[in-house]
Amino acid sequence: xxxxxxxxxxxxxxxxxxxxxxxxxxxxxxxIAAIGADLAAPEGARVIEAAGLVxxxxxxxxxxxxxxxxxxxxxxxxxxxxxxIEWLDTIYPxxxxxxxxxxxxxxxVTMAELIKHGCTTSFDHQYAFPDHAGPRLVDRQIEAAGLxxxxxxxxxxxxxxxxxxxxxxxxxxxxxxDGFIADCARLIDTYHQPDPFAMVQVAVAPCQPVxxxxxxxxxxxxxxxxxxxxxxxxxxxxxxxxxxxxxGMRTIDYLEEIGFAGEDTWLAHCWELxxxxxxQLAASGTGVAHCPEPVYLVGAEVxxxxxxxxxxLRIGLGxxxxxxxxxSNLMHCLHSGYMLQCLVARDRADPxxxxxxxxxxxxxxxxxLLGRPELGRLAPGQAAxxxxxxxxxxxxxxxxxxxxxxxxxxxxxxPVDLTMIDGRVVWANGEFPxxxxxxxxxxxxxxxxxxxxx
Length: 454
What we know:
Elements: E1 2-11, E2 20-28, E3 31-36, E4 46-49, E5 53-57, E6 59-61, H1 84-95, H2 100-116, E7 119-126, H3 137-148, E8 151-156, H4 177-191, E9 200-204, H5 214-227, E10 230-235, H6 240-247, H7 251-258, E11 265-269, H8 275-284, E12 287-290, H9 305-311, E13 315-317, H10 330-343, H11 355-369, E14 386-390, H12 406-409, E15 418-421, E16 424-428, H13 437-452
Parallel strand pairs: 1-4, 1-5, 6-7, 7-8, 8-9, 9-10, 10-11, 11-12, 12-13
Antiparallel strand pairs: 1-2, 2-3, 5-14, 14-15, 15-16
Helix pairs in contact: 2-3, 2-13, 4-5, 10-11
């Protein structure tokens, strides 16, 4: 089916290209066919009158933990009153109570929030596998993505180092390396679509070096390289002294020695890394998923994005899990990420990237980390993944001259007016077409209450 957006106020084709004004945008199937003035609508095309609308490339979320939507806004997990160890000792037993239905419904909740706010592709780092929940948790996430129409990259995470050996993982959530690798291989064989425009892909994503045996990372590298999928983990979030005590080197050297680095690899967070270590990542081509909002709660310092930019690192943006964010609104991360950098600008050697750079991190930057060049910008032949904002409201008076900077500098506080994924409108006029949001919310609340109580 073709869709013609007729008479757009503007089309932001990318964060680094001139804005196109007073144009149409035509999709054919799952791709953009044309952008220009006075385009003809093919027979049978759906025509959307787009006066006042600005079209943007869909946002790409490069780090999240969908299941954590069931542990947000809980008083017993207040970061301001708990140390990190106390927080971990409190939250992991809660994770261990989740069942298979919880992982499905929490994924629906998280992806729905992402889509409402313009996200069209999301990676999820699913690392919690309670013994009683069964082996099909990622399968259920893929089912949820299909329900909502989300373009999904499933990160099969896992923790293999027992708490008795120095990790923070209770026995109920600890796996063996063999079991972890076997399930990664199963998911790749069953679901991974290697071709462009794929709706489902799989990445090998051991949770973090401090909570896994070295062999887990070594075998992850071997599996990913043999199957052509990507690698992901947490790094640079305060664990380097622990890794140094165990292995005689800090995290980045440890990962590079194993081979967990390169253009097929990206790391989440990286706020504690030295400039030299950031230079190592840039030299190897390893990317970074910057998650700005958890910095408010768990970061000892604001991530040095100006240094990453100056060194040429590949940067994407992530919402992170609701346990350390309390939402899954990637759009909000553009604004908070930019404002955080402005807050500490005087303490940094490099200038704060311009607001448009944060839109780039959340679009083309994310596409680069995931190895998806068909995503992240609006142009003929690219994926028909986009969102639209009606700029005729009072919220936008005085802002319409620079829609590229708007999401980071001003912020978009409300859901977008339309989200299209793979050529299909999946959110418009405050609704998910063909789905009853209240029914979805009730089912999620029921699953959550059954597992965790009120």
